[in-house]
Structures are given as structure tokens and as C-alpha cells.
Amino acid sequence: GLNGDDFLELGLRNGRIVYSYNLGSGTATIISKPLDLTLNIHVIHLGRYLQKGWLKVDDQKNKTVTSPGRLVGLNVFSQFYLGGYREYTPELLPKGSRFKNSFQGCIFDVQVRTSMNQEFKSPGTPEGHPNSGRSVGQCKDSPCSLIKCRNGGKCIEGGSTVYCDCLTGWKGAFCTETVSVCEPEHNPPHLCKQGGTCVPLPNGYTCYCPLGTTGTYCEQG
């Protein structure tokens, strides 16, 4: 951060998640809505591909941004930091971040990948083993003791991963989002055939048929 180098950072400021990156020709920033403090655990998805970045926090809507300029590569040579620095050294933070101090709290699971065709993995060598950290722990709690799965969902722990197993018709980190009748995970699935497009209606759905097909479900040639 000393010379305006490329960076990618995620932080917490004034109760909102702040995600910024700079590919060398200007900073792109996404700021979430305020966190729902009734949730004890927050789930954050973020990514970047070329100039486009995205951030989804809990059940908030996915937000996207495009970085300015023409540069498309993230060229970073410094370490990947999780949590806090060994000592608070604000000059190490990227320019303009305005974070006042390092993260303190619990991180139950982190998974990363460095290309679109890789699988997500836990960082460390061996995988999942922390290299070093400060003020980051699991707060001596089982994640499921802190999570409230809604609408009949069940909390599942597997290694360092924790998630809500939702009943049919619900999705999202805490089973608070309804599954549209047209989504692949809806049970039963929609019946649009031959490339027909499912379009949800207030009561049920309809099928938009491609040229050459007709019928309620585009089933006729």
C-alpha cells in the first residue's frame, strides 16, 4: 500500500462490509447495507474477474462494480492477510482504506480460489492450517450454537464449514430467501420443454417458447 500498488481488501467499517480493489488504474469499492446485528454469524461472498467485482453479504442483494481505467490484472506480491497484523501499522494498509484498526473476532471458515475454473480451498499449508494470526479465533463456540437457521432449516457442521440445510422452497445462508418456481432447485421443477424460458407469475409460471414450438410448456413442434 505504500506506493499505490495493486490491492484487494475486505473490511468492516461503521457496521457495513467494505470491499475495494485496485488493478493499477483506480480503485473500485462496494459497500454493503448495514449488517443485521440479530445474526451472530455473517456470510460474505466476494470476487473479481478482470475489471468486474461483486459482493454478497448474508441475504442482501448481490452488488457489482467495474474498476476504472483499462488495466484488468491484479498484480500482488505481498502476503495474503486474514484478521489482524502482528502490530497495528496503518501505513501497510492500502491507500484510502480508512480502516481504523485490525479485525478482532471469530472467523469460522474461509475459502478462496485464484481462477474461475479452480475449486474453492481453505488457505494454508496443509490446507486449512493457519500460518499466523492475531485476534482471530472461533470464540470457543460451536458455530451452530450461534447460527439461527430460519423456516425449518437445520444447521450442519462439517470440519471448519458451517451452513444451513434448508427445507424445500427456501435458500440462502440462513434459509430466509424463497426459491422461485423457475429456479433449478425448485421442487417440483418447471415443465418448460425444448428451450422454453420459465417466467414466474404471481400464481405459478408461464413458458416463453422459442420459434418453432408452441403449447403450454412448449412441448409441441
Describe the protein in words.
This protein has 221 residues and is mainly β. It has a domain of 131 residues. Helix content is 2%, strand content 28%. The chain contains 1 helix and 14 strands. The chain has a 3-stranded antiparallel beta sheet with strand order 1-2-3, with no helix packed on it. The mean pLDDT is 83. InterPro entries: ConA-like_dom_sf, EGF, EGF-like_Ca-bd_dom, Laminin_G, Neurexin-related_CASP. GO terms for molecular function: calcium ion binding. It comes from Pelecanus crispus.
Give descriptors for this structure.
mainly beta, 3-stranded antiparallel beta sheet, 28% strand, 221 residues, 1 helix
Mean pLDDT: 83
Beta content: 25-35%
Number of strand elements: 14
Shape: globular
Structural class: mainly beta
Share in helix: under 10%
Spatial separation of the terminal alpha carbons: 61 Å
Query: Which regions are unreliable across 5 or more consecutive residues at pLDDT < 50?
Result: none
Strand order of the largest sheet: 1-2-3
Number of helices: 1
Radius of gyration from the CA trace?
Answer: 21 Å
